[in-house]
Amino acid sequence: MASSRNIYKREIDFRALALESPEFAKRLKTNDQLDFTDPESVRQLTKSLLARDFELAVDLPDDRLCPPVPNRLNYILWLQDLLDTSSRTGDDQYDPNRQVLGLDMVLLQSDIDDRNISSSRQTVSKNKLENRVKIIETKPDDPLIPFEKLNVDRLDFVMCNPPFYESEEELTSSAAAKSRPPFTACTGSAVEMITPGGEVAFVSAIVMQSVDLKTRVLWFTSMLGKLSSVSVIVQKLLDIGIKNWAVTEFVQGKGTRRWAVGWSFSDWRPRSDASRGITTLSKNLLPFPSHYSFDVSIKPNDLLKQAIANINTDFSSLRHFCYSWISKQSCIGYAKEDVWSRKARRKFAREQGGKEQGQQSDKMQCSNDGKSKQMEEMIENAALGFRIDLSLQADGSVHVVIRWLKGLDQVLFESFCGMVKRKIMEEIRA
To answer: Where is this region: Disordered (predicted)?
Structure first.
């Protein structure tokens, strides 16, 4: 995917960039084209884009990788989508007032290469970002996520651009197998591009370390250079019992494609557009959709009002269940367990000695501000968190979207969606 928020959605206007960057103008051909096979031209493009669009002054070593800015921005924006849409607020929206640079967080970068470390520290110092970016030197035998050296208890995310190849031979054969020369010149060093076992082994090591770290990191993520590697990594995640993961594809213009995998031990779920971004991946390797939608097309008077009333009627009778309307047409709620199915209702009736009225005594109350202790406990222990949005369509029908906010049991989510649809449809047709 190319994020809708990426400022490079359209091809870069080289002529306009040249007018703002004299150094880039020197690299531009008379036909306003750039020679992407020339390493210095590629480096200057990166430096000029970072200077113009992010106000960053960067010096790039001529013997190290020069990642394309648009592609890496897509990675950052995807990370931001994962974080924003799997938050505890249920707002499900990107905050447009937040800067992209560093996601407004302190970034901790680790590397084993002296040249990269030195260059990175110079860049941080030159841009006066010492309070935002820390460069950590690690050793080859250190954990890939070196918590002891990072000196923090938790991380919001891990992002990684692993070495793609396992040998010089694989790198060479990969280039030879392309139908045409690489789109951009390759200036990377062996330490950046080659690792025993290639990218699959490298990311697999992060997967295994994540089993120990669990919720100390909210989202583990890594870029991948081959689509086939995505399938292998996702299968490893399934093998260790991960139930909350995300995949995506980074496509920028006519350039090289890259892919990414993310996973979390949290039960807060991202939106489907953030988690199911590879359409060519096998269905069993895609995470379950985190939204369900349907239309109520029967047209009595005040159909929207009736649909909301039906939701209120049924939800208010459920125990271990709380919800609140955050707007006139949107509600957020949580359930401790399945309390809506016939089986669950019969079980509760038996526990109460057949006294149906006893169900109300065990009902959870939610405060609208979401700050009560009871609400916090309910959210923490909920097996299901959801958001329902209703909107009136031009033809008078109502569009209903149920978003899976929290939980690891897809059967429970499907059951809940079925109940909501059934109750709305039954009452309106009655």
So the answer is: 350-372
Whole-number pLDDT of residue 96: 55
pLDDT in tens, 265-297: 999 999 999 999 998 999 999 999 999 999 988
Is residue 70 located within the same domain as residue 180?
A: yes
Question: HEC string of 176-241?
Answer: HHCCCCCCCCCCCCHHHHECCCHHHHHHHHHHHHHHHHHHHEEEEEEEECCHHHHHHHHHHHHHCC
> Is residue 2 situated within a structural domain?
no
Residue 7 belongs to some domain of the structure: no
Q: Which whole-number Å values give the CA distances from 221 to 83, 155, 289, in the listed order?
A: 12, 12, 19
* Same-domain pairing of 66 and 143: yes
| Percentage of residues of the chain with pLDDT beyond 70 | 84
pTM: 0.89
Which value, to the nearest 10 degrees, does the dihedral of the CA atoms of residues 158, 267, 365, 369 take?
A: 20
Tell me which residue has tokens 């090591």. 205
Q: Which residues are annotated as a binding site?
A: 72, 111, 161
The CATH number covering residue 408 comes to 3.30.310.80
Q: What is the dihedral of CA 166, 168, 170, 174, to 10 degrees?
A: 130
Residue 396, pLDDT score: 82
Domain that holds residue 105: 14-285
Last residue of a domain, one of 265, 285, 305: 285
Q: What is the dihedral of CA 97, 100, 101, 105, to 10 degrees?
A: 70
Binding residues for S-adenosyl-L-methionine: 72, 111, 161
Residue 53: give its domain's CATH number: 3.40.50.150
Range from 76-80, 254-258, 378-382 carrying the lowest mean pLDDT:
254-258
Q: How many domains does the chain have?
A: 2
Q: Is residue 81 very low, low, confident or very high in pLDDT (cuts 50, 70, 90)? A: very high
Is residue 297 located within the same domain as residue 281? no
What single-letter amino acid sits at 328?
K
Sheet arrangement for strand 155-158: 155-158, 217-224, 258-263, 245-250, 276-277
Domain boundary among 258, 285, 312: 285
The predicted pLDDT at position 300 comes to 62
Residue 177 has pLDDT above 60, yes or no: no
